[in-house]
Amino acid sequence: MLTLDLTNQPRWHDLAPGVRVQLRPLTTALMVATRSDPGVETVPEDASDEERGVAFAKALARRAVLAWEGIGDAVGNPIDPSPDAVDALLDIWPIFEAFQLTYVSKGLLLEQEKNVSALSLNGPSAGASDTAKPVRKAARTVRRG
């Protein structure tokens, strides 16, 4: 069952021990805005899927991160989120993976669920087409004695 969070409030996500970020809800508007981000649109045509994925994740995080805890500068002083700081945070592999798993993958799981199977042949989702040719004659069975 798909559950709807009608409050649509930002949520805190733990990305590593002592590191958490407050993120906007992953909405259609946020995803569409991210697709048209200059950092995403300027990825070269010959870029790998991985390079495109990193560019998209960073653009999404720049839009989604509202606040964070446990993140500081080189000296250890706490810093506020900024586009450069968000990019630097996602350059840390375990943080990138945690962001993808705790935030991005939830939206993508819904996208994958709708591609699981073809439409039912009967009922309200009728529409799948037959793929096998009809049989011309009934098969004969052989009796064993």
Which features characterize this protein?
145 residues, alpha+beta, 5 helices, 39% helix, 11% strand
Descriptive notes:
The protein is α+β, with helices and mostly antiparallel strands and 145 residues long. It has 5 helices and 3 strands. The chain has a 3-stranded antiparallel β-sheet with strand order 1-2-3. Strand 1 and strand 2 (19-23) form a beta hairpin. Helix 1 packs across helix 3 and helix 3 crosses helix 4 (83-90).
Q: What is the rounded distance between the termini? A: 54 Å
Total strand segments: 3
Are there runs of 5+ residues with pLDDT below 50, and where? 111-128
Overall mean pLDDT score? Answer: 82
The strands making up the biggest β-sheet line up spatially as: 1-2-3
C-alpha Rg (nearest Å) = 24 Å
Strand content: 5-15%
Q: From the helix content, strand content and strand pairing, which structural class follows?
A: alpha+beta
Relative helix content: 25-40%
Listing every helix as H and every strand as E from the N terminus to the C terminus, the arrangement reads: EEHHHEHH
For the sheet with most strands, the description reads: 3 strands, antiparallel
Number of helices: 5
- What global shape is seen? elongated
